[in-house]
Amino acid sequence: MKLGLQIVRFDWPGGPASVRARLADVAGTAEEAGFSSLWVMDHFFQIPWLGHIDEPMLEAYTTLGFLAALTQRIRLGVLVAGIVYRHPGILIKTATTLDVLSGGRSYFGIGAAWFEREARGLGVPFPPLRVRFEQLEETLQVLRRMWSVGTAAYDGSHLHLAEPVVRPAPLGKPHPSILIGGGGEKKTLRLVAQYGDACNLFAGSGMQVIRHKLDVLRSHCDNLGRDYNAIERTVLGQLRSGRQPAQELIATCRNLSQAGIQPCIVSLMEPDLSLLETTGREVVPAITGFPEG
């Protein structure tokens, strides 16, 4: 079992002038503590259950480029990029650039997007959910094409790319891990089985729900002839001072491992470096040997 870290807040003491140094401290401490991956959200407004839209939020890929220069081992990713925010061809080029500049340490996290207020607020088209899922699947098809040697034109219902070329190619082999976020049983988990290398579920939904979602994913894999064990199964939880002491997090990771989860990603709810250090010292070594369920 591995532990990943997601940075979700930037309303740190000292205001905008402090963000650069504090972000560098968090990244360096997380890598030194033994976290396996480091993630940011793809949002332009803070999301409702974490704060108010007026609170600071950094653009995801610019932030990851900064983190790539500061780190050496930890993997980097967006959890997850919303399909509506960038033209898919440009998104793939952006993600490939991150992979090259990070030395092949990136995940490609993607999803159908959900935060309509954010999109409308910034003038971004926000089509119905059905269309967003169609765009998502076409993007995954284009992604596979752009990360292979082929450059044949792609002509879909929504996407039309005359020359889907991306050079330099990514360094991650065979390509950066494609993580598709969400637990929708009919569409999202089917896309994971067909195109993805990883999924992401919510730890707060409970073990029973997580086990059920993984059973659904396994069924999709069986239907498609895909090896279920080739897919990395991740969950997203929270890391908060005074709320989840080391022994509780270890127990949670043990239960998740028994359910079939591999990396557990926790959202850092405050920039508490001592919490990261304690987690690295007490939790990371304890969960390393947990077998996959």
Explain the layout of strands and helices.
Blueprint: E1 3-7, H1 16-33, E2 37-40, H2 60-70, E3 75-78, E4 81-82, H3 88-101, E5 107-111, H4 116-121, H5 129-146, E6 154-155, E7 160-161, E8 177-181, H6 188-195, E9 198-202, H7 207-224, E10 232-239, H8 246-259, E11 264-268, H9 273-287
Parallel strand pairs: 1-2, 1-11, 2-3, 4-5, 5-8, 8-9, 9-10, 10-11
Antiparallel strand pairs: 6-7
Order of helices and strands: EHEHEEHEHHEEEHEHEHEH
What is the percent of helical residues?
40-55%
Rg measurement, Å = 19 Å
Distance between the termini: 10 Å
Kindly estimate the percentage of residues that lie in beta strands according to DSSP.
15-25%
Strand order, main sheet: write it out: 3-2-1-11-10-9-8-5-4
The outline comes out as globular
> From the helix content, strand content and strand pairing, which structural class follows?
alpha/beta
CATH C-level class: Alpha Beta
Largest sheet features: 9 strands, parallel
CATH architecture: Alpha-Beta Barrel
Give unreliable regions as ranges: none
Mean pLDDT: 95
> What's the β-strand tally?
11
Assembly status = single chain
What does this entry look like structurally?
- This protein has helices at residues 16-33, 60-70, 88-101, 116-121, 129-146, 188-195, 207-224, 246-259, 273-287, and strands spanning 3-7, 37-40, 75-78, 81-82, 107-111, 154-155, 160-161, 177-181, 198-202, 232-239, 264-268.
- The protein has 293 residues and is an alpha/beta fold.
- β8, α6 and β9 form a beta-alpha-beta unit.
- α2 (60-70) runs parallel beside α3 (88-101), α6 (188-195) packs across α7 (207-224) and α8 packs across α9 (273-287).
- The longest helix is centred in the N-terminal third of the chain and has 18 residues, at 16-33.
- It is globular.
